[in-house]
Amino acid sequence: MLTPNRRGFLFAAGAATLATAVSAGPFFGRVFADTPTGPFELPPLPYDPAALEPHIDAATMNLHHGKHHQTYVTNLNKALAEHGDLAKLPLEELLTKLNDVPESIRTTVRNNGGGHANHSMFWQIMGAPGSAGPEGELKDAIDRDLGGLDKLQTDFNAAGGRVFGSGWVFVTVDKDGKLALTSKPNQDTPLMEGARVLFGNDVWEHAYYLKYQNKRADYLKAWWNVVNWNAVAERYAAAKAGTLTI
After folding, report:
1. Which of 63, 92, 138, 225 sees the fewest Cβ atoms within 10 Å?
2. Residues contacting 121, CB < 8 A, separation 6+
3. Which of 90, 124, 158 is the last residue before a domain boundary?
4. 112-132, pLDDT tens digit by residue?
């Protein structure tokens, strides 16, 4: 049996090797995923992979976006390759209809469709450090529903710390602009329940292990430095307008 220290050493050593190999050539990318063909595509990052330094390192961003997220997209397209009716659905609608997905691919669609939705949201709501805090209607909603930004950050970080293994912590928003805090295991998402996500943070180890190792609490605290509050405010306005998708 691996001790926790040895497990951490092996994980870190493997991750470091993996980060070095990312730029080694196209063959290595195929360890994670083939080039996808299908209706779903990997969205480009809206900033340079190094833009979130020093809080999230470029090596993590390259692996997280270009390899892990790409794998979710590829696997989702493969699962739906012979199910054209499902492949035509918008992702947020597909995730609310998992009971209609054939049992043989349901878990694959749940895991990879959820992963695609969660990560697509994740890239959108981050940006270079220095973003001003929430303002206007968004700030009012945070004060009203979540006790203010300081309390939100404390409660959000605690919820992220309580996720056992892998998962996400989210703030959801309804059509009236009401906010709520929730967490989900694995790649589950509030979209599966018909809710909308305002923003969320990934607490899978692949999101932080290269820089923070097993110190998830440090990662959760540092992550607030790269939240793009302007992007979050745009999502809040879209939710109230009924146009927010994933």
Report:
1. 225
2. 197, 199, 200, 246
3. 124
4. 999 999 999 999 999 999 889
